[in-house]
């Protein structure tokens, strides 16, 4: 256990966690920009950024879903020590919110209830015609012969409630994230390279006492932090994974 981090955690009364893809890599979900990340794959005819765009979803729906179900969906993934630690800190009353760029739902699976999903979730899906809701299992169960999920009520096209390239963030979620960060005394940022805006810009709203950055690689915000740990986040937070 890092002694400086322990002191910060012990003294904190209002912690907010802001995390990215690196939080889930130890649950065997690849990140985007790492050496083994999604952006490095060359098995598809287009870059990942293109195939995960709103235009591509509507113009090439079959190819979008082929990529989506093979590269974005990990139904067997389980929360790791980082997810469990954050849930435990919430139960203790210390952690007030988890702000995540991830869409995998592992924070909720670990027991966190105050989760703000900036980029949506693969577990929420809506019909574009009648707005019928399907969970992830429903999406997989209602795919047509081309692999495209169809609404079981009206036959319309289903769309994941995830933020694709070319789409804006949910302003209610973004506002709640800003409010939480402005109110906290300790902001822990983990598993994110802090290069995706507007999400990365949220750190500029922090005016509390301690900014902790936990990421394998350096970020442009390292110089601002009270504590920087270039280590795997599940390893760092593991001591807090029990109540």
From TrEMBL:
Which enzyme class? transferase
Q: Where is the Deacetylase sirtuin-type domain?
A: 1-243
Q: Where in the cell is it found?
A: Cytoplasm
| E.C. code | 2.3.1.286
Query: Which cofactors, by name?
Result: Zn(2+)
UniProt keyword terms in alphabetical order: Acyltransferase, Cytoplasm, Metal-binding, NAD, Transferase, Zinc
Catalysis performed (reactions): N(6)-acetyl-L-lysyl-[protein] + NAD(+) + H2O = 2''-O-acetyl-ADP-D-ribose + nicotinamide + L-lysyl-[protein]
Free-text comment on the cofactor:
Binds 1 zinc ion per subunit.
Q: Please, which domain of life does this record's source organism belong to?
A: Bacteria
Query: Which one of the record's GO molecular function terms can you name?
Result: NAD-dependent protein lysine deacetylase activity
Q: Where does nicotinamide bind?
A: 32, 103-104
Residues reported to bind Zn(2+): 127, 130, 151, 154
Q: PROSITE patterns given for it?
A: SIRTUIN (PS50305)
**Is NAD among this UniProt entry's keywords?**
yes
Q: Where does NAD(+) bind?
A: 21, 25, 32-33, 101, 103-104, 119, 192-193, 215, 233
Catalytic residues at 119 (proton acceptor)
Which family is it part of?
Answer: Belongs to the sirtuin family. Class U subfamily.
State the NCBIfam families in the record.
Answer: PRK00481.1-1 (NF001752)
Function per UniProt: NAD-dependent protein deacetylase which modulates the activities of several enzymes which are inactive in their acetylated form.
What's the protein here called?
Answer: NAD-dependent protein deacetylase
Give me the gene this protein comes from: cobB
